[in-house]
Amino acid sequence: MTSRLFSGRALAGVGVALAVTLAAPVALHVLAQPAHAEDEAKPGTVRPEVGKPLQAAKAALDGKKFAEALQRLNEADAVSNKTPFEEQLIEQMRLIAGVGSDQSSVAAKAFDALSSSGALQPAQKLQFMMAISGSYFRAKDYGSAATWANRYFQAGGNDLAMRTSLAQAYYLNNDFANATKATNDTIDAYYRAEQTPPELLFQLLTSCALKQNDKKAYAVALEKLVAAYPKQDYWLDLLHQISSRPGFPDRLSLDVYRLQFAIGALQNASQYMEFAELAIQAGLPAEAKAIVDKGYEAKILGQGQEADRHGRLRDMAKRSVDADQPTLGTAETEATKGASGNPLVNAGMNFYGYGQYDKAAALISQGLAKGDVKYPDDARLHLGIVYLAAGQKAKAVEAFKSIKSGDAVNDLARLWLIKATGRAAS
């Protein structure tokens, strides 16, 4: 087939938007108050020499003056012989200030100190691990961002945005194998939550495949992308990936055009013309005429310098239909007499062109049952196409899924399944 499909590879230069905004943590409500001298020895109190800079730090935090807060906390930390409670308050506030100022290492050190002392509740740990990961991400320390995201999930976190952030961190750290796994895991998590994954995730998946020069993975990722976001450019890129593979059989070129037409992606007069010509060559004049008529309705054919050629093709398709239509009954009778199922399958596809889908499905099914069909999987593919045109989606899906071969017919069947169900095949 001389491919006239879109060949721009819609995602070859994809610029994946990788900015992530993570919510700032809720400030801990345990804040220092200066203690009276007589209370110095009591647990849960703070001495004045520690309490004064802590109060100043709290005021700075309230005003989002994080650098000033860290300076005041350093003053409090410089006091000798601090009690465990005083140290805990300093680290709590330092954690908040570190996150607020995107000083990731400061926040991480404070977190670890608080975590080891048992000062943080599980929910607080998750919240701060999420924030620290986001802080590292914004600082473009993607390896540390991934480390803290993984700590978050190991601690029981399940936020979907964090899963996306982990995948992005791996990607931006050029760890495409882990980025692929994390992205697939995130997509699965969205589906388990009965939510549609963001388009960004599928773009990320395709980009990972391109970065690794893995054409098979790229096609699989495109299938998932098309299923979730069936944009024309994505569809055409996917069709191009399949039809341009070495060894793609010419006999399936007509089926590629059938799918392209079904998704509303015939783009120019040349494609309409080649589609119709292939149908005529296959002995399917009614299908050819229907395609030409659609081209005229869309005002794609009959225009420009090639208008006369379009008209000649339309006339030829009409004459072929006029000659063929009176013989349909005879052709059907003759097809049932042969030892091979091929004539029945061919007759069925001819009825498909005339829009007689029930008759078409019955004949193709009879041909498959009789056996000795040259390309049985082609016939199953056509049966699915006929059922889908007839509005019998369940039977169409069954027919497409019955194709088990690992060749191009199976590839096309998977795409028809996406068209029928909106989900990529597993």
Between the first and last Cα atoms, what is the distance in angstroms? 29 Å
User: Structural class given helices, strands, pairing?
Assistant: mainly alpha
CATH architecture of the largest domain: Alpha Horseshoe
What is the helix fraction of residues, given as a range?
Answer: 55-70%
Q: Give unreliable regions as ranges.
A: 1-42
Q: Report the CATH superfamily of the largest domain.
A: Tetratricopeptide repeat domain
Which H/E pattern describes the elements? HHHHHHHHHHHHHHHHHHHHH
Q: Quickly count the helices.
A: 21
* Structural domain count: 2
Radius of gyration, in Å, reads 33 Å
Keywords for this structure?
mainly alpha, elongated, 21 helices, Serine Threonine Protein Phosphatase 5, Tetratricopeptide repeat, 426 residues
Please provide a brief summary of the model.
The chain is mainly alpha-helical and 426 residues long. Helix content is 67%, strand content 0%. It has 21 helices and no strands.
Structure commentary:
- With 426 residues, the protein is mostly helical.
- The chain has 2 domains: 37-173, Serine Threonine Protein Phosphatase 5, Tetratricopeptide repeat (Alpha Horseshoe), CATH 1.25.40.10; 250-421, Tetratricopeptide repeat domain (Serine Threonine Protein Phosphatase 5, Tetratricopeptide repeat).
- It has helices at 48-62, 66-77, 84-100, 104-117, 122-138, 142-154, 160-172, 176-192, 199-211, 215-228, 232-243, 253-262, 269-281, 285-297, 307-324, 328-337, 342-353, 357-370, 376-389, 393-401, 408-421.
- The longest helix has 18 residues, at 307-324.
- The protein is elongated and about 105 Å long.
- Mean pLDDT is 87; it is low at 1-42.
